[in-house]
Amino acid sequence: VTEVHEIVLQKVGHVPVAKGDFMKMPKSVRIFVSHCIQLMKPRGVYICDGSEAEAQEIIHKLEERGTLTRLTKYKNSYLCRTDPEDVARVESKTFICTPDKYETVPHVREGVAGILGHWMGPDQMQVELNDRFPGCMAGRMMYVIPFSMGPIGSPLSKIGVQVTDSNYVLLCMRLMTRISPKVWEVLGDKEFVKCIHSVGCPRPVQRVVKNHWPCNPENVLIAHFPHERKIKSYGSGYGGNSLLGKKCFALRIASVIARDEGWMAEHMLISGITPPNGEEMFITAAFPSACGKTNLAMTTPTLPGYKVQVVGDDIAWMRFNKKGELRAINPEAGFFGVAPGTNMQTNPNAMMSFQENSIFTNVAETADGGYYWEGLEDEVPKGMAIKTWLNETRALGQPGPPASHPNARFTCPASQCPIIHPRWEDPEGVPVSAIIFGGRRPKGVPLVFEAKSWEHGVMIGACVKSEATAAAEFKGKKIMHDPMAMRPFMGYNFGHYLQHWLDMPKVPGRKLPKIFHVNWFRTDESGKFLWPGFGENIRVIDWILRRCKGEDIAVESPIGFIPKPGSINMEGLGKINEKELFSMPKHYWLDDTRESRRFLEDQVGVDTPPIIFKLLEDQEAAFVAM
Ligand code: GDP
Ligand code: PGA
Ligand code: MN
Ligand code: MN
């Protein structure tokens, strides 16, 4: 009798359960999933277990349909081309919804459009959602994904459940998060983050589907409800918009949880650096998207005797432990890295991480079943036929538009990185000695400087700017403010967030990391980089670590401590224009300091902690006196 019972297909309402056991999910999840079914009307429900067999079944389907192309040169690796209109995060259509507007966004100056988060009232958002979600999964399968951000069961980890109608999203979530039925056990009746994602293309489709990549670019909407711990994402399949564990959960929702619980959710890499003396130290670094986190996280140091091991390349969850040490975990399980520019010279460790079990999005394909993108010119033979991300064929070496999209990405398991840190899944996290900010600053900003205090470091973070990159929808190379590298990822009022940082030292006994700012991207008049970057960045990191140990190798300047002449090891580097690389032009900095103050007055207004303005005034006065 039981056997007969088991082969009868489960149903939720009228919708069949294609895989998995609905009743094995915790009650709160069953209620959530039932609600999703009622709302979005999928043709079936597929409860994922994260297994390899499951992945192979989905991959097979996607290959047949043409969404994925197997890259035969590598084991179990695939190329995917998106609809060319769905290639990046869409900041302008990303909202946070709270009843009180000013919980989410600062008081901006009248007539100024706020850029530090977009708020929409819950009622108005409901109208927008009602226009999109009812019936949006018609004719499609709804995948239910139980996942953990951070090692399953770690006290620092958090659980989410994502429903999605995109099997590409499911495959990427398998790489980027930890999907497992164990999540149901750990979850029990505790809280989870509710993640709802739809490509917004119910069947029969209303819009021509390009590249077998259903999406709905005109109607993209990514809504966050921090109080309800809920995310609703519609219309895009691109990573930052659709892999909801990443930016939506691990940064926007988590920053709110962190505010409430007294910790920090940051857009930061985490790495362990061992100098020749063997004393390892950990750094975290916040650079805006496509400004070098993945590269620095797993850099191959050019200085002999140094070792770098990566814990995370994009997101850090950090909290002070009982001993007062700041401990960081990487909530993710994979790397979602910028492909163009990645090669055996710049980042061999990334290259080695994606030789199998990986997904490549919007790169080109070579005739021999490999990947290709800008930056691989020296690693793929000239004359090789390629098919670009836009499906155009040409031979390498022939002129033509870019072979890959500038925001093309590789997605691979972090565990495959040859220098993954043995403690990368340590449930206690690793101790942080230095926090580094940075961005693409072609002019004026020296290679490295050190904050004069924790508060000064927070001010430096609040003034982070960078040239726009292809990771978001912005066009051109304008310099944009990206405070703390969190502009696109803030989950609550940026002024309150700065205060949260400033409050960190208020608990007695806390050992505060030192804070630094770096700039790998300063250029000369001809636009050439003044600093070789990549593996050579270890020279700057070495200076930073020595400062953390209190070495007398810095002098004070208006912007912070800068290296004493000769204190950064430049041995074997060839010709470097140190004068220009470290210069701090008075008029540039006067303008920049005033511009930063104006930015905070405009964008954060009365919510700006006064100490930040005080420090900017001091800086301005110091330059005036120079
Ligand atoms: P992320 O998005 O912050 O993780 O940035 P990535 O590490 O993926 O780098 C983004 C782009 O910046 C890639 O094209 C890299 O090749 C380039 N890049 C990274 N580090 C450096 C560096 O030190 N110097 C220069 N010039 N370019 C870099
Ligand atoms: P990254 O992350 O560019 O910081 O690697 C992805 C993103 O910000 O969309
Ligand atoms: Mn990022
Ligand atoms: Mn990255």
From TrEMBL:
Protein name: phosphoenolpyruvate carboxykinase (GTP)
Cofactor names: Mn(2+)
Phosphoenolpyruvate carboxykinase C-terminal P-loop domain sequence ranges: 263-621
PANTHER family: PHOSPHOENOLPYRUVATE CARBOXYKINASE (PTHR11561), PHOSPHOENOLPYRUVATE CARBOXYKINASE [GTP]-RELATED (PTHR11561:SF0)
GO MF annotations in UniProt: GTP binding; manganese ion binding; phosphoenolpyruvate carboxykinase (GTP) activity
Native source organism of the sequence: Littorina saxatilis
Alphabetized InterPro entries for the sequence: PEP_carboxykin_GTP_CS (IPR018091), PEP_carboxykinase_C (IPR013035), PEP_carboxykinase_GTP (IPR008209), PEP_carboxykinase_GTP_C (IPR035077), PEP_carboxykinase_GTP_N (IPR035078), PEP_carboxykinase_N (IPR008210)
Keywords: Decarboxylase, GTP-binding, Lyase, Manganese, Metal-binding, Nucleotide-binding
Nucleus keyword on record: no
Domain of life (superkingdom): Eukaryota
Subunit structure: Monomer.
Enzyme Commission (EC) number: 4.1.1.32
Ranges where the Phosphoenolpyruvate carboxykinase GTP-utilising N-terminal domain occurs: 32-259
Biological process terms in GO annotation: cellular response to glucose stimulus; gluconeogenesis; glycerol biosynthetic process from pyruvate; oxaloacetate metabolic process; propionate catabolic process; response to lipid; response to starvation
One GO CC term on file: cytosol
Protein family per UniProt: Belongs to the phosphoenolpyruvate carboxykinase [GTP] family.
Signal peptide: none
